[in-house]
Every structure is written in C-alpha cells, then in structure tokens.
Write a structure and sequence with these properties.
Blueprint (H helix, E strand, L loop, with lengths): L5 E4 L8 E5 L10 E5 L7 E4 L3 E3 L3 E4 L7 H16 L9 H5 L15 H25 L9 H11 L5 E5 H4 E5 L15 E4 L8 E5 L11 E4 L6 E4 L4 E2 L5 E5 L7 H15 L18 E5 L9 H55 L2 E3 L5 E4 L5 H7 L4 E7 L2 H10 L1 E5 L12 H5 E8 L2 E17 H6 L10 E10 L4 H5 L2 H8 L9 E4 L1
Parallel strand pairs: 1-5, 9-13, 17-23, 18-20
Antiparallel strand pairs: 1-2, 3-4, 3-6, 7-15, 8-14, 9-10, 11-12, 11-14, 16-17, 18-23, 19-22, 20-21, 21-22
Length: 517
Amino acid sequence: MTSGDINFIGATSINNGLTAKISNSEHLHPAGTITVTYNGSVGEAFYQTKPFWASDDVNVLYPKIHFNERIALYILAPLIKKGKSYGYSYKWTKEKMEADEIYLPITSNKKIDFVFIEERVRELEEERVRELEAYLKEAGFEDCILTQSENDALRMITEGKKKMQRFAIIKKFKVANSHNILKSDVIFSSGTTPYVTASEGNNSIVSYISYKPEMVEYGNSIMIGGKTLVITYQPRDFFSNDSHNLVLTINDEAGRNESAQLYMVAALYKTLGPKYSWGDSISKAKIKNDVVYLPVTTDGDTIDYAFMSTYVSAIKKQCIARLKQEIAKERSAYEQVLTDQAKVVEMNVHKKKQSEFDDLDVWMAAEPFERYKWKGFDQSICEFFGNNQTILVGCYKGKKYQEWIHTHNIYNIRLGKTKGSMEANRELFESTSMLVLYELGKPNKLSAYKITGHFEISKDELIKLDYPNKRPRKSYMAFDIVPLEMDLTFLVDHHLIERLIELNSNNSKGTPVFIEP
C-alpha cells in the first residue's frame, strides 16, 4: 500500500517495521525514536530515522537521555531480548513496558556509559563491514557490471515492453500441504536441515534440526506460509512447522533454478498479496483459483525462464553495487575516525577497561571470552556456588559437540595468538574448579562438571580425537571434567545465562565466561 512518502510502521519483523507509505503528514511521531511491536511480533524493535505514523499495536519510545543512532542500536538488543522472552501471544503494552527494566553498561559513578556504548557499536559496525567484504569476495560478487542482456531485461520491464501472460498456478506448479512439525516437538540446533516457519526474517528459517526423514519437504521449491502469506524460495530440503503451509514445485525443468524461482516468488507476492490476509488465509483449495503473471517468449506460449534468470541477475548486481557503495562509505568513515581520534579512543577504552570496569567488578577480555567478578551477580547465585570458587560457564553448539565432550570428558578453550585466546589469563586455569555448560540458544538446558585438571592440546591432537570442528585452531587449553549430579533448577530460575547475555550481547553466540571471587 503506497499513497505517499510518509512511513507507516506496523507489527512486522522486517524492513525496519515499515509496512506501507501514506500521505497523511499530521500528528507524526518524530525521527530519533524507537518503535516496539507488542502484539503478534512481540519484542521487535527498530530505530526510526524519519518522522512516521504507527499502528495501534506499536509502542513508541521517546528518549529522555542523550541519544544518537549508535546508542539507539545498542539499546535495541536488550529491548528485543526482553520482548522475545515473553512469547508470541504476550501483549507488551505501554503500562507493562513502563514497569520493565533493561540492562545497560554504566560508569563508576553509576551513570549510563554512552562512550563505551558508542565505541562498542562502532567496533561491531567495522566487524560487519569486514564480514561483508569477505562474503562478497567468496561469493564472486566483486564484479557488478551489468551485461548487455541484463541491461536489456531491466529496460524491458521498466518500459513495460516484455510480454506477460497469466497462468493458473496449479497448471504450472505441483501444490501440496507441508507436514506439521510443532516447535515443541523439535530440538533446536540439533541438526543441519532447515526448520522453516511462516516468519518473515532469515528466509523463514528459525533453526537447523534433526527430525524424522519421512517428514522432510523437498528443496528447490517455493514455500508459502499459509496463515501469514510469507513466500520464500527454499533451495535445500527442509522441515515445516505447519500443515497450513504450501509447497510449490515448478513442473517445467527449465524453471528449476534459483534465479527463476526468485522471480516467481516476487510474481506470486504481486497476485496473492492483495488477496489474502490473516483472517482470510490461503489454502490448497483456494489457490486452485489463483493465477500468476510471468514473462513469455515472443511466440507467447512458453514461459521465458531465461529472461527471468537474467532479470534477477541484474537486480542482484544492482543491490550488491549499492551494498558495496555503503561498505566503502562505512570503511572510509571508520578509517577517518581511526586517523583523527586514535589517541582519544585509546585513552577512553583503556581507561574504561582498567579503572571503571575494575570498580564495576567486570573485565572485558579478548573476544569472545569474558571475565567477571561474583559481586556483579545476585547474592543468591553467589551463595549457590559458595562465593569463593572460580567457575567456567561454557557452551556447546549442537549434539555432535555435546557427544564429543561427554565421550572424552574434556572441554577446551583457545590459546595462542588468535582472536578469543585466553593466553593472558592463564592464572584462572589453576583456580577454576567447576564447569557449567549450556546448549546454544537454550539457556535452560544446563549441566555441571567438576574440573579435575587442565592441559594444553594441539590442533593435531584434537583432530585425532575426532573433534567436530574439522579446522581447529593451533592451540587450546583443555579441562578434564567429571559430570556432577546437581539440580541446576535454581540457576535456570535465576536466569544465570540470560544475565551473562545481558552483560554482553556477544554471549548469545556462546561466549565462554569465567566468574571468579
């Protein structure tokens, strides 16, 4: 829906909350505010850089503090985490939000540490730029120059010169309902097959799981979220969460390639989008009456899959060219900051890490490891561990890692001159007496182990032990562990892992953490 140039923010998890463009410019919410959806897509939060309208199920947060885009982006993370913790059906209303709290870093005098926040976000921005540069190079997208055929395809669509024809969907696709696999029936991160729902983000993939082979849906197909009309191309075999979802498989062999099917996803959105909604969702019975408009060859009888692939290739190149421009701008801005403010940044960061964090009993170690004092936690949690022992909180990522740890009774962390090394903190190894493990993404799944010793282990030695990561680092410190029969419900109820993630969002990636007296 587009009737103007004013952003309309609604309950969606993509496109920064933008659901439409409207023309009404009266009583707008100002730029520089945060929007939070509280009904349906509960907990989705976005920073708005332009004045906007908002739907009834969106809360608008007006800053009472020093605010800029980097600070807002930092605040989004704990807001989203807080909202997601309530569940899909929770209505996070204005009154409930006013009674809620989030964790933010503070200075030694208990003020919000805006300097640290901005530096941290700047570091993350630079990290993302490096990752994007590496991805574009690896994916072969360094050359974004359009070919003549790609230019012609763009021009023909823009000028309306490409012949289009209407096709009954059921004549061109095999349409089937997917299997029904509830979230409660699967273990997240338990395998390598995508688990797909009717959600908008991440190509509708919410996790990678292992499940009954007979329930798999064949990839190289298009999935339509039955209730929400989210349409995605799924290149790989996948599992589906709901039998209302439809799986469309193109009949023509010539159309079974990624680019052509990405074109068809957009074409399906164009014809089905205005017709179906949550209260009137699509189904296998209804789609029998639906059509899709696709380009045809000059004879008018054959779908022009080659043209579709060429057109999508051109769009990809245009998007990547814009992305590379943004990367270049970010790179230039970041390098300018380093040049102009290197001494100031160094002074602030080192002063903060060495003095203010000492006062807070929190040390930030080389990523992704961290080191904390027990004083930063609830007294009841401290008493659970006896206040005077050093523990290691670790994470395993999937069933293979868990099985490997249990088979060999060791848990390892990095050493040497590499990112995430604990080389400079060797004094902790001797005093660490206990390991608490959790599964990535499942902070409620805890297990405890007694640490009986430690030893250095090399890459080659790990490979001989069938280490799940086939390309390990050069050197590690391994801890000998013995399983403990402990009831860890108390730690789950007091949100030990969530607390660590609130202290630093990197911990959500499975950051190992030392906590010491």
